[in-house]
Design brief:
alpha+beta, two-stranded antiparallel sheet, 7 strands, 6% strand
Length: 329
Amino acid sequence: MIKRVKAHWVLFLTLLLSLPLHAQKSEEGYGVYVEQLKSEAIVEGFDAQFVEQAFADITFYKRAIKADKNQPESKITLDKYLRTRVPDWKVKQAVDLYHQHQQVLDKIGAEYGVQPRFIVALWGNESNFGKIMGNYSIVSALSTLAYEGRREAFFKKQLFAALTILEQGHIQKPQFLGSWAGAMGQSQFMPTSFLTYAVDYDNDGKKDIWSNPEDVFASIANYLSKEGWDDSITWGRQVRIPADFDLSLAGLAKSKMQPLSAWQGLGVRRYDGSDLPNVDLQASLIMPDDENGRIYLVYSNFHTLMRWNRSTYFGSAVSYLADRIKKGS
């Protein structure tokens, strides 16, 4: 009897393991889940007719589930990342676009307390200056990822924020497109970030981060400003450390921030070997790869960039492009 039960369990487990991983995430199951989402949306206060329209022609994006599960991609060095994300052609475009929009950028930068070069650098890194925004239906992408279940609460929150954006009329449904993860527009805001930071700069009644450069620039600047940006300082600088440096001092934790004078005393120098600036600034020392790669002293503005995107590679790329814009090439 025991052997027979054991054999049944072996057969059951064999069949279970032979099933494809996505077997329980079928289009049929997605359809049932979407109906639940629609009911929840109505409970959240959305009009039933609006909900039906918002979820009409809903699409199950298997590619979004695959992309979400496959992160992060294989490890590359920061040097290779910078060559890929900030090639010379992108720097040239950034400089040209900075000058093309300089009047409005200067105005927005002054109003929000953000240097325009950082606005352009974020714009370039997020969407290649509006050229790559994604062509996934935002409602479908977020519904798919909520259905996948790994981060259901997060994506449902983003979905209901997306419905609010549609309901408020900032964009029409056919144009409500973005990345597979739900990031939207030229600034690649998630829906909750849109509701918190997006700006209707030209006062036309719409916060249009898809096609209105003024709204895009002001929304980026507003995010940075609200998250503590200080336009009296820059982001940081590349440095050198002595051979006997205590590597445990590196890191972005607030407890590891020290004045530049303290880093100077520990033997940290500018990349060219000269002394650090004699100014009263708190800084963190970071090594995005390790002590053999690029090493930076970064200020509070870099910490703000980390709230935009937690990747030190991303923050380094934005900062590097901003410096190249300042240089003019």
